[in-house]
Amino acid sequence: MKRFPKCEQCRTDTKIVLKENKSKITFLNPNQDLILVVTVDGCAIKDTETLKCDFALAPSDEIEIYVELKGSDVFHAVDQIESTIQLISEDPKKVRKFCFVISTRVPKQTTSIQQLQSQFKKKINASFRIKNIQDECNLSAI
Questions:
Q1: How many whole angstroms separate alpha carbon 134 and alpha carbon 112?
Q2: Is 0.70 surpassed by the pTM of this model?
Q3: Where are the domains of the chain?
Q4: Over the stretch 84-93, which tens digit does the pLDDT of each residue have?
Q5: H/E run at residue 37
Q6: Angle at 32 between CA 89 and CA 99, to 5 degrees
Q7: How would you write 52-121 as a 3-class SS string?
């Protein structure tokens, strides 16, 4: 992941909580590994025209995590994450990526969402999950 020193925090907390409005995700870090947390929207990428997600995390050089905390437009959130990956990932196709969309209103797991997940995996080696209001991810398990 490209570096943005003014927008980064190196954290070793056992719980890393990212939230915006009603949406929240908690990353469990039981081993207290050093996790790079980048504030993307409004810091690493400041302009208002570029699509970008809210946060990016790098638990290691081989893994990147992208987070969008969203109202209800899940498909727009996916576009924001994809745009961010193209802009700040060192190697958009090779590095393993995990993407999280935390929305206040999640559409049902329709075939269009399943197709989107499949395309994401093929196109940029990224898996993503969509959750309603809050989610939790154990970093030691990925």
A1: 22
A2: yes
A3: 5-141
A4: 999 999 887 7
A5: strand 35-39
A6: 30
A7: CCCEEEEEECCEEEEEEEECCCHHHHHHHHHHHHHHHCCCCCCCEEEEEEEECCCCCCCHHHHHHHHHHH
